[in-house]
Amino acid sequence: MHSISSKCLDYQKSLLIEFKDTLEFDHSYSTKLMSWREDMNFVFGAASHIAPVACSKCSSLQRWNLANKNGINGMILVAFGKLAGLTYLNLFYRGFTGQVPIEISSLLTFLKLGMNDLQVPVPKPIFQLSGLESLLRFGDMFNGALELNDILCPPKNLKTLDLSNNFLSINTSETSKTTDSCFPNYGNDSKTTCLLQGVEVSDIGNNQFNDTFPCKLKSLSKLRILVRRRLTMKSPPCTSWRCVLLFAFMSTSMGIHSVSGLCLDDQKSLLVDLRNTLEFNRSTSTKLVTWNSSTDCCLWGGVTCHSSSGQVIGLDLSGEGLSGPIDKSSSLFKMQSLQSLNLAYNRYIDGTIPSRIGTLSGLTYLNLSRTGFAGQVPIGISHLVRLHILDISQPFFWPGTFSLCMKSPNLATLVQNMTNLRELHVDGIDLSANGKRWFEPLLSSLSHLRVLSMSICNITTEFPRSLAKLYSLSVIRLDNNDLPGTVPESLASLKNLETLTLRNSRLIGTFPEEILQMPTLSTLDLSDNGELQGMLPDFVQNASLQTLLLNSTKFSGPLPTSIGNLKKLQTVDLSYCSFRGVIPSSIVSLNQLEFLDLSSNLLFGPIPSFSSAKNMRKLHLSSNKLNGSITSTEWEGLSNLESLDLSNNSLTGSIPTSLFYLPSLKNMQMSKNKFSGQLNEFESMPSSMLDTVDLSSNNLEGPVPKSIFQLRGLVSLSLSGNKFNGTLQLHEILSPLKDLKYLFLSDNFLYIDTRVNPAAENSSFPQLWILRLASCNLGILPEFLRNQSELLDLDLSNNHIQGMVPKWIWAFSEGLFYLNLSCNNFVELERPISPAPALNILDLHSNNIQGELPSQMFEGRQYMDCSSNKFTSIDAGSDLSSAVFLSLARNDIHGSIPTSLCNATDLEVLDLEDNHFKGTIPHCLIAGTPNLHVLNAKRNNLSGLIPDKIGKICKFQTLNFNGNFLQGQIPRSIVHCKELKVIDFGNNQLNDTFPCELKRLSKLQVLILRSNKFSGSIDCPKQNSTWPSLQILDLASNHFSGDLKAQYFAKWSSMMAGMNESQTEPDHLQYRPTDEYGLYEDRVGVTFKGRNFELTKILRIFTSIDLSKNAFHGEIPVELVNLNALIVLNLSYNSLSGKIPSSLGNLQQLESLDLSCNTLNGNIPQELAKLYFLEYLNLSFNKLAGPIPIGTQLQSFSASSYEGNLGLYGPPLTTSSRSKHAPGLTLPTSLEESACSSTSEVEWMLRGAEIGFPVGLTIFIGPLLYIRRWRQWYCEQLDRIAIKIRHKEDRTSGRRRRRRRQKQIH
């Protein structure tokens, strides 16, 4: 206080000195305590250091100002209440915490508490201070509910009321609501007499009021300014002109609204100039079109004027359709009084953000979100140091594309002086240039930040663990960034945190349960973090959680019963997680729940009754293991339910027809369950809104109820994959359903009668988009299809349609995308062929279509399957450049492989199996098709070398050239194909050593090199790599030699029990192209149980090793015991010696064991009797001795399994068998036994042939070289013989192929 001319009393001075001594202050900055002036001070320390005793003695004190830059913190002292004469108290912009003392001077006329950290409910005694004229409590953290009368009936002298920027809500009790009605005769209502009767300015913006706004405010005669920004209150239909005028100004923009008569001429002139320079859409504008020069500019849409000066302080042009750049000379930048500027949602504004925007230094609110601004955020924004809210977030359309960025200046520079900032929205702005320490400037500059929204900002660093140091945060949005790392538990210390969204941010580790238990948290979104783990904790009563999104994470464990405590829950998405157990019955007590998605988890048990969830709109429980039946009573009362998805479970029983009567239900998904029985007719037509019904893939039977076709709002109906029977008249189905677009009736026992009245086709049938009639016993092509001009997808497969494929089928719908005519009896293609341009997918497989495949069939097709027909050739000029999946397998096509395939740069699958292609493999097919994953040319007449020009970028997964005449070596460049899973080069003429490079292919699962001319050891001492995924190895019928070493089999983990299981991959080897259309399934030939088999599907559980018919020697390695998932083991026809390892008895999965034609000795191990799955055993023609173990399944095999072992006896060998093999008898010399000759004998025979052949050749060739007449006669005879052989081979080959095809068909 200032003393007045030597009137300072001594005891007063004493009190002041005592008070000064209790304070900590900066002497170098202080201008008042040093001279005892009234205004600015720099005081430090906690409020408790201000001696309460000294304060209480200052009983005559009337004004106390501790505002602005003082460093006082702590609690507001109760001692302030003892200053009975205090009329002015200013504690603005301090670090005060806690609550306002209830004891406070009743004489106060001015109270300013804004910009502190007061986090408690507003004490009611403040509203009972009768002399209070100004109450300013903005920018704190006040919470709780206010009585409506506290706002509408403040102290009678109050002129200014500011409660903005808190966390306040309105108590909407019945008492309050009764004072909130909009009575026409408000002047006669005694309850309106207290309504802000003297208040001229009121600001309640930026709070949590969410009820209907009090319409009685229309009675206020003195209220000039009312601010309601950023609230969710509803405006009632007020009828009074004053009420309408008032609410016209209460927009969501920040600022103050003048009522009338305050517009200044210079301000109007600036606004008119601004409008004239702006380009905007007059048809959609709601604000600029109201700017009429003849009216008060303070009444113009989007304009806010100061209550007394008339200066324009707020400008809201959001959503006005502005376009073009904003020029730096714009009159906008001359409005120096602007406090609020909103240009949001004008996406056609272009250019950069004007740097002159930094001249509007008075701005406290700036919103440039969802505009078309691009480039660097200008340095000028950093000059707006008074900003409370900054929103420059931008829409994000494509990955890697950002319209705005913060590089120079960066984020740190832009915000370093914005110490008043409360909300920062920079979503969709590239912040990558800010580095890994992007978060530090927020900590140092924005200590009072409440809202941090930085979604899709290209941030690539670990999750900021210091985030919890921003103690005031209530909203955190960091979605769609790259924030690998764990979420810190310290976030749970943010006492005001309400919203935390971290969707798709690559989070890992375990999410802290403490955050889930925060009492203030209302929204949590962790979805699409595929490596984030966690469990749901026990939830406490009265938590605030309303939205919980954990979908597509690794959250697991049971759903806690305490989830029923979350009474405010409205949206829950836990889909695509790993939650287990039953759905707790407590979840049905959440009567506020509107959306519940528990799809794709591991939940089981019955579905609880949701009949009490009256607000439920969407209930999705698909792809679990739920069982039991559902009854009609479980769904009663769900009058708001719009979508029900119970598909892909194990639900049984019947489908209650009461579901069809739910009044709001639009989508019903019940497919892929075990529902059975008949679907009953409806007793009465439901007043249903159903547009989608999917009952496919169940066991429903009987006739299809006709009443289902009376659901006239149906857009999609799927009944496929059931046991419905009877006849359906197609015109009866389609005629009532005018909106039907999708119809699926495939795979039932139905007979679909497609005969219709031609005159009624166009008028009565809906225009379908998808029609699936597979396996519907169709005998002819439905004629009504000719008029289905909008059809996109047609499936008529697996019917009995015969004859010619008509030419109209290709073009009846220009948009036809998918056509499936497979598995019918078509024999010919009607010409000319002119497929619709949009036809991408064409399936003609398994018909009997003959002749040439015309070029028009290929043009534009991405997926084309013409396999299993009788096509004989391909038009040489065919354009195959669009092909992604092409199968011509099992036809009679001759000629070379078309080089035009090399133009198909998107080709992923090429299947040419079982044809007559000849010549060499085109080099460009190996090196020039970068996306080719599958190349199958099995069983053709290809010759020459396998091209050795495989590039470093190789995507092959399957290479199959089995059954050709290929020569030379395996190309060493194959090592570039890191994705290879199947290599089948069997039954060729390859002459090579074992290609050790193949061991570097870690994903290899099938390797077949049988029946070639490979030789040498299979040992690869320089290769440390193994085949962890190998499941089939076939090296049979070559010239491999050497010992079988233990390290060969050490790490073949796919042949070890428990090591080859995968929950994510399909159960057999296959490849599906990236566009999801088409499926290639690998097929190979194996020797199994003594016979040759063609595996049409290679199950991942099938494992086989076949090293037969080689020259391996040494003992059988004991380490084979580790391959305990092995099903087939064939080591026959080698020179293996020693005893049969007893450890082979541990191969519990073994079904076929062939060790025949070796030199094994000793007894048959008793342990082989433990092979309970063994179905084939061959130990013949070895040197085994002793009894065959008795009393085991070894006696179940025939005697041929043991023959050729001289010392072996016992059942099943008979007495004659034993005498036959008695010592001294010579071995049989049958063809079979001669095949078991030792390798050395075979080698000597080959060497003799090598010597004898050239000698004989010289004797025969000599006369032909020197006697011309002999030579001429010899050539004529040779030509005659060759012609006969060729004719005979052609006839034999044709018969053989026809027999093979017939076997495949049957």
TrEMBL record:
Subcellular location: Cell membrane
Keyword Nucleotidyltransferase part of the UniProt annotation: no
Membrane topology annotation: Single-pass type I membrane protein
Pfam families recorded: LRR_1 (PF00560), LRR_14 (PF23598), LRRNT_2 (PF08263)
Cellular component terms (Gene Ontology): plasma membrane
TM annotation in the entry: none
Domain Leucine-rich repeat-containing N-terminal plant-type: 10-37, 265-305
InterPro entries: Leu-rich_rpt (IPR001611), Leu-rich_rpt_typical-subtyp (IPR003591), LRR_dom_sf (IPR032675), LRR_N_plant-typ (IPR013210), LRR_R13L4/SHOC2-like (IPR055414), RLP23-like (IPR046956)
PROSITE patterns the record matches: LRR
Keywords noted in UniProt: Cell membrane, Glycoprotein, Leucine-rich repeat, Membrane, Repeat, Signal, Transmembrane, Transmembrane helix
Major location (coarse): membrane
Annotated family: Belongs to the RLP family.
Name of the protein in its database record: Leucine-rich repeat-containing N-terminal plant-type domain-containing protein
